[in-house]
Amino acid sequence: MKFQEIMKAKRRYLKLTQEDIANALGVSTPAVNKWEKGISYPDITLLPALARLLETDLNTLLSYQEDLSENEIGVFLNDLSAMTDTSEFDDVYQKAMQKIREFPNCYLLLVSTAAVLDGMLVMSSVHETVRAEAEKNIEKLYERALASDQPQVVAQAQQMLISRYMNRHEYEKAKSMLNEIPDRLSIDKKQLQANLYAAQGQYAKAASMLEEKLLVTVQEMQSLLSTLMNLAFKENRKPDALYIAETSKTAAEIFHQWEYTSYIAHFEYYVKCQDVKHTLEILPHLLTSIRRPWNMKGNPLYQHLKTKDLDTGFQEAMQKNIIEALLHDEETAFLREQDAFFEIVNQYC
């Protein structure tokens, strides 16, 4: 919160009027009004008296804070995501960078904001110059996050940087950073925590923690299956690649994943095979599934998880970007020779 917001909140909590503040400090009521609007600020000599009057300390009044809490960061990131429905990427980007300037040493904020901006940049249509500048600055955020004393923050930054190096074929840099990452400890803290909750009779907490762990594990498994399918293609093992795609679909259905997940592996398989018939058969299902909600409520696997519906703005942007890729990527050029392809795509434009 900013100074004026804190001042107003404290004053209202104490049921003081702006006139009360003015009389106590020997200033005019319009002056106090300007302080609360952020138009001007009180003289530095008045701050100790103002803090005492509002029953707070100077650090709180001046909103001095080196770090944000995880909850505060989560709220901020949700606000950023909500902006994508009504704002251009540059507006979201500028708001993010302003927050980082306010908390330059909050490394969790840096790495989390960088990851969100990364995702938004993929889903946004921006000029290449703007994209290049944003990507450069996002990478700098990951690099700054490496200075954190929180292992999970450093690990996330390392993971994102390694991915970027590999995409640019900077394999030596990727290898060097990979060597800095310690092998994962065999101790599973979340499993132990869930066991402790269960032993204490806190069954809902134990179940919630394990359900969240299951969801993350399934998503990691889908990522692994996608990579394995691509490797099977590179080794010219098409039957194995098809088997892996079918496994991915089955896993998505068994573990109640977003419907889109059950189509994407087969779609990618048929595209790699340049199989016009099967690609066009699955394409409408894929594009339709993107706009369908992922509702986990009531499913026994995720009974205790607090969930929210997918952001419709995100779904719309995702569908738009997939269509753009279909219309322009070299890999899908074989589809653009088919009238049926354009008939399908036009239904979703």
Describe the structure.
This is Helix-turn-helix domain-containing protein. The protein has 349 residues and is mostly helical. The chain folds into three domains: 3-61, lambda repressor-like DNA-binding domains (434 Repressor (Amino-terminal Domain)), CATH 1.10.260.40; 70-180, Alpha Horseshoe (Serine Threonine Protein Phosphatase 5, Tetratricopeptide repeat), CATH 1.25.40; 189-346, no CATH class. It has helices spanning 3-13, 18-25, 29-37, 47-53, 58-61, 70-83, 89-102, 107-123, 128-145, 151-167, 171-180, 189-199, 203-234, 238-254, 259-273, 276-290, 312-328, 339-346. It is elongated. 17% of the residues are buried. The model has no long low-confidence stretch (mean pLDDT 88).
Shape: elongated
Largest sheet: none
Number of domains: 3
Secondary-structure element pattern, one letter each: HHHHHHHHHHHHHHHHHH
Helix- and strand-based class? Answer: mainly alpha
User: What is the count of helical runs?
Assistant: 18
Low-confidence stretches are none
Mean pLDDT: 88
* Count of extended strands: 0
Helix content: 55-70%
**Distance from first to last alpha carbon:** 42 Å
Task: Quote the beta fraction.
Answer: under 5%
What is the radius of gyration computed over CA atoms, rounded to a whole number of angstroms? 26 Å
Keywords: DNA-binding
Protein name: Helix-turn-helix domain-containing protein
InterPro entries: Cro/C1-type_HTH, Lambda_DNA-bd_dom_sf, TPR-like_helical_dom_sf
GO molecular function: DNA binding
